Write the structure tokens for this entry.
Amino acid sequence: MHGSLQAIVVGAGAAGLGCALALARAGARVRVVAAGAPRASLAAAGMLGPISEAALEPNGAHPLGVDLGLEGLDRWGAMAPALAIPLRRGCRLLHRPETLARAAALAERAGWRPIADAGSLRLQEEAVLEAPAAAARLIRAAAAAGAQRVQAQALAPLWREDRVIGVLIEGGEALEADFVVLAPGHGRSTVWAEAAPALRALTPARGCIVAVEQAPAGDPPVLRTPEVYLAAQPGGRLLAGASMEFGVDDAQPDPTIAARLHAAAVARRPDLEALPWRAHAGVRAMSPDWAPLLGPAGAPGLFLAAGMGRNGWLLSLLAGEIISAYVFEQPIAPLYAAFSPDRLRPS
Ligand SMILES: Cc1cc2nc3c(=O)[nH]c(=O)nc-3n(C[C@H](O)[C@H](O)[C@H](O)COP(=O)(O)OP(=O)(O)OC[C@H]3O[C@@H](n4cnc5c(N)ncnc54)[C@H](O)[C@@H]3O)c2cc1C
């Protein structure tokens, strides 16, 4: 136990909650400073799909992203039952032959047994969770481990010489801690970028997604096609997504995009047509190599769990474990060190 160590986590989305839970369970006294709803995290489809995501990533994506994603999925497999977060397993990729070939090769390398059938690939190991329910469970688990919530905007880092020793929150209060973990989603004000220069490399990408209520689950629960993915949530909704609108950082869904996603979903599943649906959106923080920034931010005392991109839920628990290892000065595995924010710091 490390009972005397105090940590502040800024942000309570998938990244901040993963960090708060891991730090509190490791024995830190944790305060989570969060303002507003974590819209990206609540909008998400909750797919835990390291292989299908890696197969769809563009050239220039981080070469180890798939390995990190596989570990992220392992953490969910190990921890979800105790957190009472239901996972549904299985994904069918119905994509171009080159995407399927890439996914099959990655899956085989991971020791999975992908099943090719009728121009598609089944990945039984991939999973899906219901993001809002998972967030609620993580909040409860972090609170049970002692984490406290402070509902406020963290306006700026609190400095002592060149070290970050806490945060200034709205109202002028200064909260001190031994370490601050910044998990701001797409929030990237210049005040924070001075202490965490890699934040400047992040680009917002709005994701519009359509929720169909009371939809019968598909088999397997996740279907991914070039036009749309369908993710059947453990709670009964079906999510059809999602757009990648680079440079857009407001979370209002675009009605034209929503209608296109709904039409693509109905084309795949005509039984959805008669069901009520609505659109929502969230803003992802994308890094240039589509991989997260996990580790020392630059200024001593400050860590980043940012740039979670399209995989913030997949990586949530693992991100917490990695940040906790940094905070407690434990050895950092080479795979994790490869995602340090250092790689994106402007020279
Ligand atoms: C449509 C869509 C579908 C997605 N589908 C998936 C999926 O299937 N699987 C998957 O793994 N990921 C998915 N994602 C990505 C995933 O949602 C994100 O990567 C993840 O939610 C990011 O979490 P976060 O905690 O970094 O950010 P957020 O969820 O944005 O949370 C950050 C929080 O920090 C708060 N904050 C920021 N700055 C401050 C401050 N200074 N003071 C106080 N609070 C602050 C914000 O208000 C916000 O509440 C999807 C995203 C979208 C938009």
Residues 65-83 form the longest helix (19 residues).
